[in-house]
Amino acid sequence: MMKKNQKYAGWQTIIFWLLWSLLLIPLYFATAAAWIVGSLLKTFNEPMDILLTLIFMLAIIMLVLVIFKSWRAFINHTHSFSKVLGMVFTGLLVIPLLTLLLGGATYVQFNNQPMSYYQNNYDSFMEKHASQLSQAH
Fold first, then answer.
1. Which residues contact 34 (CB under 8 A, 6 or more apart)?
2. What is the Cα–Cα distance from 56 to 38, expressed in whole angstroms?
3. pTM of the model as a whole
């Protein structure tokens, strides 16, 4: 059984629920980004797309954990208000910032490959599917 250590004031309850509901915004964007990039994986398996999908999925998991743990800590009064707000701000600021930095670093790293790499992949794709493309026209 968890020990309850304090009762929150009315203004603290209002601030918590307002900030906690804002956690749904980065969760929405991470989910949308994972869905958009992940939907490309059916036909176009670039390492950058796979890695970006994994980064966004990791962000979703971390945000869901923060949402659940902060809600549970607030409802059960197991942490001080400052610790609960720290959890919420982790989900509002730290996780989206880390996701942005990791995604940006992945994008820059994979886009620094020489154009011959992409040209070779395009040429091999066209050779494999040339008959299908000519039948479509």
1. 53, 56, 57, 59, 60
2. 9
3. 0.74
